[in-house]
């Protein structure tokens, strides 16, 4: 009876701890981000190949919006490239 | 023969318990991750096709449902309901992903925590695997129920 309750309880505490622990696991080399007008960073779902260069990397979303590309959900991580606009 | 059946029943119960723990971890993790980054999650839902009109309600309802399902697993009497609810939730999510993959262009992922690195195809595969696990647990739970009622009937027959 005790195991029936405690094991799920431990599993739940473990999951809560894990979600806090992985909260900042957002800098993922396979993902790039953009910052919409809301200010909240959004994942592009993939890494954008921006080419070589020192110009700002720009992406056009399927809905037509054009945004700058970031390496991480952080305004200091603006991605550089050849400056050509990429389509998502 | 009876010992063999007992062993099989023991393994079935163990499998159902492990699957229950897996779903508790999965749903609690998903719900808490969404709640930690609630604002981000809600904004992402707003940009999703088909459901953006209900983004605020969904951002509240989804984690709440996931936490309720996690608590259902605590009581062995509610395990059936918990497995069925998990299966229904996963099927709804799968149908949504299929609709997104078929009718929408690429969109950002709304998943919390480490699962945010999943692509939509990865999600579909992961959810299908979870749905199969839920189905397996439902089937095993039915088997165990039948085994229990059968053995209790046998006990009654032996008693006199």
Structural features:
heterodimer, A: alpha+beta, two-stranded antiparallel sheet, 1 helix, elongated, B: 160 residues, mainly alpha, 5 helices, 79% helix, Methylamine utilisation protein MauE domain-containing protein (chain B), transmembrane helix (chain B), membrane (chain B), transmembrane (chain B)
Write a brief structural summary.
Chain A: Residues 69-88 are annotated as: Disordered. The complex is a heterodimer of chains A (88) and B (160). Chain A is α+β, with helices and mostly antiparallel strands.
Layout of helices and strands:
The complex is a heterodimer of chains A (88) and B (160).
Chain A: H1 2-21, E1 33-34, E2 42-43, E3 55-56, E4 58-60, E5 66-68, E6 80-81, E7 85-87
Parallel strand pairs in A: 4-7
Antiparallel strand pairs in A: 1-2, 3-6, 4-5
Chain B: H1 2-36, H2 38-46, H3 55-72, H4 79-103, H5 120-158
Helix pairs in contact in B: 1-2, 1-3, 1-5, 2-3, 3-4, 4-5
Membrane topology (chain B): Multi-pass membrane protein
InterPro entries (chain B): Methylamine_util_MauE
GO biological process, one term (chain B): methylamine metabolic process
Number of strands of chain B: 0
Query: What is the helix content of chain A?
Result: 10-25%
Instruction: Please report the distance between the alpha carbons of the first and last residues of chain B.
Output: 23 Å
Rg of chain B (CA only): 19 Å
- What characterizes the major β-sheet of chain A? 3 strands, mixed
* Mean pLDDT rating of chain A: 80
**Low-pLDDT residue intervals, each spanning 5 or more residues of chain B:** 156-160
The largest β sheet of chain B comes out as: none
Low-pLDDT runs of 5+ residues of chain A are none
Characterization of this structure:
The complex is a heterodimer of chains A (88) and B (160). Chain A has a domain at 27-87. In chain A, 20% of the residues are buried. With 88 residues, chain A is an alpha+beta fold. The model of chain A has no long low-confidence stretch (mean pLDDT 80). Chain A has one helix at residues 2-21; strands spanning 33-34, 42-43, 55-56, 58-60, 66-68, 80-81, 85-87. The longest helix of chain A is centred in the N-terminal third of the chain and has 20 residues, at 2-21. Chain A is built from 1 helix and 7 strands; from the N terminus they run αβββββββ. Chain A starts with a helix and ends with a strand. In chain A, strands 5-4-7 form a 3-stranded mixed β-sheet, with no helix packed on it. In chain A, strands 1-2 form a two-stranded antiparallel sheet. A two-stranded antiparallel ribbon of chain A has the order 3-6. Chain B is mostly helical and 160 residues long. Chain B has one domain (2-151). Chain B contains 5 helices and no strands. The A-B interface holds A 4-5, 7-9, 11-12, 14-16, 18-20, 22-23, 25-26, 28, 30-31, 36, 38, 40-46, 62-63, 88 and B 17, 20-21, 24-26, 28-29, 32-33, 36-37, 39-40, 43-44, 47, 70, 73-74, 76, 104-109, 112-114, 116-117, 119-120.
